[in-house]
Fold each of these.
Amino acid sequence: MTENAYLIANNNSVGLPITIDPELCSGCNSCVAACRAHLLFPNPEKGKPPMLFYSEECWGCGCCVEYCTVPGAIKMRDVLHQRVGWKRKETGEYYRIGMKTPPSPNTRPPVY
Ligand code: SF4
Ligand code: SF4
C-alpha cells in the first residue's frame, strides 16, 4: 500500500526567520543545500523559490544567505522574537509578539 505524505510551507509563521524575494530568486537551491537545519526544500515548480518548513526550528545561522547565488534574493529577519517573551507589569500577562492566543502567565520563578 502506498500513501502520500504532504508538507505544507509555513510561510506565515510568526517566527519567519528569512524572506526570499521571488522576483530575484533564480531557484538555484543553493540555500537548500546550505541550510544546516534542513528547513528549506526545493520548490516542486522548477525555477521557483525554495519553501521553508518548520521555520521555528531555524538556527538563525545565516548560511542560506551566505550561500545564495543572487545578492539580495534571501534576507535574514530578526529571529529573536521567537525566543523572547514579555510580561505586562499591570496584569502579569506573559506573551510573545504576534501570538494570537498568548499562553497562560508564567508563574515559575526565574532560574537565576
Ligand atoms: S538561517 Fe540557517 S537554519 Fe535558518 S533557514 Fe537559513 S540556513 Fe537554515
Ligand atoms: S540560493 Fe538564493 S537564488 Fe538560489 S534558490 Fe536560494 S534564495 Fe533563490
Amino acid sequence: MIPMKQYRFALIGCGRISKNHIAAAAANRDIMELAAVCDLKPERAEKKAEDCLQATGKKPAVYTDYHKMLKEIPADCVAIATESGYHARIALDCIRSGKHTLVEKPMALSTADAEQMIREAKEHGVTLGVCHQNRFNDPIQQLHKALEDGRFGRLVSGSARILWNRSMPYYQQAPWRGTWAQDGGTLMNQCIHGIDLLQWCLGGEPDTIMAMTGNYLRDIEAEDFGAVLVRFKNGAIGMIEGTACIYPKNLEETLSISGETGTAVIGGLAVNRVETWNFAAPAPQDAAVKKLSGTDPKDVYGSGHNALYRNFITAIDTHTEPLVSGTEGIKGMKIILAAYKSQKTGLPVKFDDLEFSTLDMTHADVKVKSIS
Ligand SMILES: NC(=O)c1ccc[n+]([C@@H]2O[C@H](COP(=O)([O-])OP(=O)(O)OC[C@H]3O[C@@H](n4cnc5c(N)ncnc54)[C@H](O)[C@@H]3O)[C@@H](O)[C@H]2O)c1
C-alpha cells in the first residue's frame, strides 16, 4: 500500500478545546503535521505552539491573523476552534482558499450558514468535516455496527440524556457562552454530541421536532435545560433531556436505543460505557463489547478527536466522505434549531422545511417563571 502523504494543518482558535486538536496532531503525526496555529490572543497561540512542540517535536508557526496565515502557510487543511458564532465566516474563508476544513461543533448557528458551507465546500472541491468526536467512542461504534447489521429489528425509540453541570464561572470565563449570537444554550453547546448520536443511531432522517426549553438557573441569555421529542421518518421516536443544571457536578451522558429485537444503553460520563447490551440473536463480538464498561475519560471531551482527525484525513486521501461530513454535521444542529423554533412558537416543527438561526431567539424570553 502506498503510504499516505503528510497533510499540513493550520489551527484557528487556541482556547479550551484546542488541546484536543494538539493531541490529535500528536496521535496522527504519521499522516499530519500542525504547521501553524492562530489566535487573536498571541499568548494563547504561542502556548499552543509550545504544547505542540512538546507533543510532536515540531513547533508550528504562530499567527494572530488567519487571513495572513492562509496566505503564507501552504496548508492542506484548516481546523477551526473559535467561538461557534464565527465558524461559518471563517470556514467559508478557508473553503474559498481551497483548504479542506474541519470545524468544531456546532458547524454554524443557522441553517442558511451551514447549508452555504456544505454547498461551497462541494463547489471548491474540498472536504468539510465537523467535530462530533463521540461517534468514534468504541461502544458507539459497536452500537452503530449492530444497527447496520439489523440486530435491533424494527426501531421503536431512543433517548439521549445529557445531565451535566455548567456553573456560572464556566460562562464568565468566556462570555460568548450562553449567548444567542455566539453559542446558543446547553442544547447547542453541550448536548449537541448526544443529539448527533441519537439521530445517527435512529436513522438520521428526522421528520418532526417538538420541544420545551427554558432558562432556570444560569444567568445567560439562552436555555440551560431542554426537553425535545424527535419523530424520525422511519417512525422511531427520539427523546432528549439536556441540562447544564445538574447538582453538584456532571452526572451522565447516556444514549439508549431500543428496537424489536435489541436494546443497548451506552452511558457513563460521556457515552463511554456499555451499560446494557441485549439482543435476540447473539453475535461473536458481544462478550468483548460487554467489557467496554471501563473507566470514564479524563474529561467529557474524551479522546475521539484523534480518531476523527484520522478519519477526516483518510477521507481526503481516498476521495471519500468523512464519517462526520458537513451533510452529517448539520443534522444535530438543525434538530436543535428546530427545538428552539418549537419553544418560540409552541408548535411542532418540520425538519426538512426549517430555516432558522439562534439569532431568531434573540428576543424570545426563555427565563422560566412558576406557572401559578
Ligand atoms: N468537540 C467538543 O467536544 C468541544 C468541546 C468544547 C468546545 N467545543 C467548541 O469549540 C469551539 C471553541 O470553544 P472553546 O471552549 O475552546 O472556546 P474558547 O473561548 O476557550 O476559545 C476560542 C478561541 O478562539 C479565538 N478566536 C476567536 N476569533 C478568532 C479569530 N478570528 N482568529 C483566531 N482566533 C480566534 C479566541 O481568541 C479564543 O482564544 C466552540 O465552537 C465550542 O462549541 C467543542
